[in-house]
Design brief:
Helix 3 packs parallel to helix 4. The two termini are about 35 Å apart. The chain is globular. Strands 9, 10, 11, 12, 13, 14, 15 and 16 form an 8-stranded mixed sheet that branches. The relative contact order is 0.11. It is α+β, with helices and mostly antiparallel strands. About 30% of the residues lie in helices and about 30% in strands. It contains 8 helices and 16 strands.
């Protein structure tokens, strides 16, 4: 029994230490590479969480409002996420603002509980209580959040108990119209057009997902080596809000929101 308690204590210490490195690691990454304007960190500040508004909006003791950068708040069932966040209410937070104030007057921030170095965004995702998402930005400022998410998904924690949507299940995808989803499947066709590129997860005449990619985002994917030939036939994971346009459609604004999966599986063998 004593060994079990010691083991759990060591596990908690290691987890706290790893969380402490998250924000520091992001700062080091900024110094080592060119950072997208929306990811540039502002001056660190100390704050406290006074409450939560809709969709995880943080109401700070100073009166300012903020949202955690790099996550998608679960709109349909957010009770567990709210409870997790409110457990840290009134505690001192270290905030690192990212980019400009958004159109709703909110800061996008990285945030950690100062005395325990608990990373709020990373903690939510690790517990399966939120998704990693670039939102309206064209870059996910902390790509390591996707790695944390993979652990929660593999363990079927929280939101991941329902699994990932199947890209060929058009009927189920249409039922999610207007909602944020994560879906995966094999890309059976890639159609490159002057303004947009289309990734089809089902053959012509079948009912499945179509992903639309803007010209700018497609250019970034090509810079990463993901052109038509490289994506056709590959298993990929995508995320975004489902729209109804002939069939279920996702519009991808960030190249970071398309993950090639069969490449990962090959590396794990």
């Amino acid at each position: 029994m004593q060994r079990v308690m010691i083991g759990r204590r060591i596990e908690r210490i290691l987890r706290t230490a790893s969380m402490a490195l998250v924000l520091a690691g992001a700062a080091r990454a900024e110094a080592a590479r060119s950072v997208a304007p929306q990811c540039v960190g502002g001056p660190t500040r100390q704050e406290a969480l006074a409450g939560l508004g809709e969709r995880g909006e943080m109401i700070l003791a100073s009166g300012d409002r903020a949202v955690l950068d790099g996550i998608r708040w679960p709109v349909e069932d957010d009770g567990a996420a709210r409870a997790w966040m409110l457990d840290h209410r009134h505690r001192t937070l270290t905030l690192v603002p990212r980019g400009e104030i958004d159109r709703w007057g909110r800061m996008h921030v990285d945030a950690a509980v100062s005395d325990e170095a608990i990373d709020l965004a990373g903690g939510l995702i690790e517990e399966g209580l939120a998704y990693a998402d670039a939102g309206e930005r064209d870059t996910l400022c902390r790509p390591a959040l996707l790695t944390l998410e993979s652990g929660a998904r593999a363990a079927a924690r929280g939101l991941w108990r329902a699994g990932v949507r199947e890209g060929r299940d058009g009927a189920a995808l249409r039922e999610a119209t207007g909602r944020f989803i994560v879906a995966q499947g094999r890309v059976v066709n890639v159609g490159e057009r002057p303004a947009r590129t289309y990734l089809d997860f089902a053959k012509r005449g079948e009912d499945g997902l179509t992903v639309t990619v803007s010209k700018r985002t497609w250019r970034r994917l090509r810079e990463r080596g993901l052109n038509m030939a490289a994506l056709r036939g590959r298993i990929v994971r995508v995320r975004g809000i489902v729209e109804a346009w002939r069939g279920p459609t996702l519009d991808i604004a960030s190249a970071d929101m398309i993950e090639v999966l069969d490449e990962e599986r090959t590396l794990r063998r």
